[in-house]
Design goal:
heterodimer; A: alpha+beta; elongated; B: two-stranded antiparallel ribbon; 5 helices
Chain lengths: 80, 229
């Protein structure tokens, strides 16, 4: 079994309403040092050994992320 | 003339669309999301709701339902397709319409009657004069339309912007969109005008018993147009 961690975030310039709300909320709580919050998705994918990065990228482009608005980053995870 | 209304798991406006079409004297039948045959249907409607629980992104899973391959073929052959609310989200995910629909600005689920200005467009589903103001309910959490600058220019240049959120007098102000949508866009069509997506729910305003009739032309226009062909 191989594992990949996938991070899906909004592309630069795409407004992120939950992130903006969390940013204001933190500032309202007194964390004035906060200048930006972006909220994305974290996906843990388990696949059979030998599955290529290209194949995982294909899954991201097709379903897990929408390339019109989102970027994704794939990290292979070494099992401890 | 027969409307087909697709039911995805989690659709919840399909009965309203069927009722609206039949109330206006048209034939309408359900299409199951697992079906792969659109024979006998002259126009297809993707209704509102929460297909597949809106998981991953609204419309992201529904887009891969077996019926969608047929809907894409139908649309590419010039068949009229209208996506309402979640149906609009599915059409963008399926790349039948450009752009995407994000979470509403302010994170609020909005549900109210909304004035909309009809724009000069190529849309085959609507022939109301440009500048007409219609009142149609909106009912969504992800209606914040977005696309890149190049796409927006193309939408404007090709007459693909069909409806804009506006004030009751028809003026379109920067704050007119209750969801933060880019350029106040409430509905767009493809270049050909046969594929139409909109966040508001015209099916809810065809019967005077239910607060208005501003949605009537959204069903009758396409029927008349198909009858002329």
């Amino acid at each position: 079994m191989a594992r990949f961690d996938i991070y899906v975030t909004y592309k630069k310039g795409i407004f992120d309403p939950p992130g903006a709300t969390a940013e204001r909320a933190l500032q309202n709580l007194g964390y004035e040092e906060v200048s930006s919050v972006k909220i994305g998705k974290f996906i843990q994918l388990e696949v059979v050994d030998g599955t290529s990065m290209d194949r995982v990228a294909e899954m991201c482009g097709k379903l897990l992320a929408n390339p019109v608005i989102e970027d994704y980053r794939i990290e292979p995870v070494e099992e401890a | 003339m027969r409307f087909g209304v697709v039911i995805f798991p989690g659709s919840n406006c399909e009965q309203d669309v069927i009722h609206a079409a039949r109330y206006l004297g048209h034939e309408a039948e359900y299409i199951w999301h697992g079906d792969t045959d659109l024979a006998g249907f002259d126009a297809v409607v993707l209704p509102g709701g929460f297909s597949y629980g809106d998981y991953i992104r609204c419309g992201a899973v529904a887009r891969f339902s077996p019926v969608m391959a047929e809907v894409v073929r139908f649309a590419e052959a010039g068949g009229p397709v209208m996506g309402i609310c979640n149906g609009f989200q599915i059409l963008t995910e399926a790349h039948l319409l450009p752009g995407a629909l994000l979470r509403n600005v302010g994170l609020k689920f909005i549900c109210h009657s909304q004035p909309l200005r009809v724009e000069q467009s190529a849309c085959q589903w609507l022939d109301l004069p440009a500048g007409t103001v219609v009142d149609i309910p909106v009912n969504h959490n992800e209606g914040n339309y977005i696309c890149d600058a190049e796409t927006l220019q193309r939408l404007k240049g090709n007459g693909q912007i069909v409806l804009r959120y506006c004030e009751p007098d028809g003026s379109v102000l920067s704050g007119s969109a209750p969801n933060g949508a880019l350029d106040n866009i409430a509905g767009i069509c493809n270049e050909r005008g046969n594929v139409f997506g909109l966040m508001p729910h015209p099916e809810r305003v065809v019967d005077p018993l239910c607060s208005g009739t501003d949605g009537v032309s959204f069903f009758n226009t396409i029927v008349q147009r198909l009858a002329e062909v």
